[in-house]
Inverse folding.
């Protein structure tokens, strides 16, 4: 691990400690206790789902799989990390890495699930419902006070140098997987084999991915969160969409690439190139002060141009946007905040914690903020051929070229996505 990363992590912890203490003084708390959480068995079973620790806990320490653990931040002494490390021959217990950040905490290794002694003036941040499962009574303190929780979410909106470094490395590792997925597709593999190629090249097991990888061929590329992997290759290969990520020290990459199949119509290749160009033009406009909602609306105008330029719509750009044609071809938002969580917190609130919901016409938009330096966002325009969304338009007199649309239906759709850090004077594309 590089010395630069360790220095950045120490500075990150120092800044968090200062910010937390300022919030404790502001809201008059003696301490803030972050509970990592724990997995609960499936109903009627003894098997556990995959676990990932609570985001505010991971914001401090890169222990994504640490269950039943606590980080208590005090106003007047070093933070205390209570790490659950049972004596267990069934599972390998959590161990501390030999890294400098460990020295920034007073650490207690706990062999049993343990709740630290907290006073009534402690803010407890975490999943209280799961905590009740393993405690006779909840600990003293105030559970998830709303104003403080919003303030802690806001601390995660602006990334430190350490966090940007982690996100950049997560992107590098994920792109190795994307390259392997493309090669597997070229070799006529099925969706499952493409997924396995991605995991192998990005050096991760399926339980460690930050979200369920989307590996969709042909019409499956038009299912926005396609959740299966076919085990047989299709007889025709029109397209492949890979939306897949990687974690590094708890921080998530979220990258999408769409690839041309040998059986796709020529127009689909042209549309893929057009959508990459749309993505690049939108990224070029990123800078402090940019309204993300306005940029999302700009995506729809760009999409209207693509539909018109390629003969899919014979009307004006204004008509395509106003009549909902572009929304039928792209029903999701332009992007979202990215960090410890793939859809990171505070995207639909103002900096002061007030609600800032998505516009009524764009309910799937996950980020409504004005961009500021340190934010990391995804930019992911799409163009899809989804029967459920397009069929209602067939009963209108809108000038859609249904002959071309029907030719493109087997291709499913196109999405391209990069991860972008907002800098003082523009942007930094973290996706190599």
């Amino acid at each position: 691990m590089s010395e630069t990363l360790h220095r950045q992590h120490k500075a990150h912890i120092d800044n968090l400690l200062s910010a937390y203490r300022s919030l404790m003084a502001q809201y008059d708390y003696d301490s803030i206790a972050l509970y990592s959480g724990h997995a609960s068995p499936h109903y009627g079973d003894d098997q556990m789902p995959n676990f990932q620790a609570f985001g505010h806990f991971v914001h401090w320490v890169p222990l994504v799989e640490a269950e039943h653990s606590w980080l208590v931040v005090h106003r007047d002494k070093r933070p205390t990390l209570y790490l659950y490390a049972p004596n267990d021959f069934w599972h390998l217990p959590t161990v501390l890495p030999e890294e400098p950040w460990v020295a920034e905490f007073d650490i207690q290794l706990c062999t049993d699930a343990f709740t630290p002694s907290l006073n009534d003036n402690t803010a407890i941040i975490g999943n209280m419902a799961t905590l009740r499962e393993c405690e006779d009574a909840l600990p003293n303190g105030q559970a998830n006070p709303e104003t403080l929780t919003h303030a802690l979410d806001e601390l995660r909106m602006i990334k430190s140098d350490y966090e940007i470094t982690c996100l950049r490395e997560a992107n590098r590792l994920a792109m190795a997987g994307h390259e392997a997925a493309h090669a597997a597709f070229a070799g006529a593999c099925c969706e499952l084999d493409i997924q396995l190629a991605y995991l192998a090249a990005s050096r991760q097991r399926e339980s460690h991915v930050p979200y369920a990888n989307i590996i969709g061929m042909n019409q499956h590329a038009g299912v926005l969160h396609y959740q299966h992997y076919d085990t047989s290759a299709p007889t025709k290969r029109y397209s492949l969409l890979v939306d897949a990520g990687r974690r590094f020290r708890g921080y998530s990459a979220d990258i999408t690439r769409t690839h041309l199949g040998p059986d796709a119509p020529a127009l689909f290749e042209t549309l893929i190139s057009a959508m990459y160009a749309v993505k690049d033009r939108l990224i070029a406009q990123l800078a402090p002060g940019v309204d993300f909602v306005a940029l999302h609306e700009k995506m729809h105008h760009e999409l209207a141009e693509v539909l018109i330029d390629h003969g899919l719509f014979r009307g004006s750009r204004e008509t395509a946007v106003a009549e909902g044609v572009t929304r039928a071809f792209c029903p999701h938002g332009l992007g979202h905040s990215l960090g410890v969580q793939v859809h990171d917190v505070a995207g639909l609130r103002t900096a002061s914690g007030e609600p800032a919901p998505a516009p009524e016409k764009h309910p799937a938009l996950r980020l409504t903020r004005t961009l500021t330096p340190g934010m990391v966002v995804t930019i992911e325009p799409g163009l899809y051929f989804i029967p459920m969304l397009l069929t209602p338009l067939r009963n209108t007199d809108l000038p859609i070229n249904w002959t071309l649309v029907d030719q493109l239906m087997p291709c499913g759709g196109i999405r391209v996505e990069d991860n972008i850090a907002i800098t003082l004077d523009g942007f930094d594309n973290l996706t190599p």
About this structure: DSSP finds twelve helices and 14 strands in the chain. The chain has two domains: 3-157, 161-429. The two ends are 20 Å apart (CA to CA). The first strand starts at residue 31 and ends at 35.
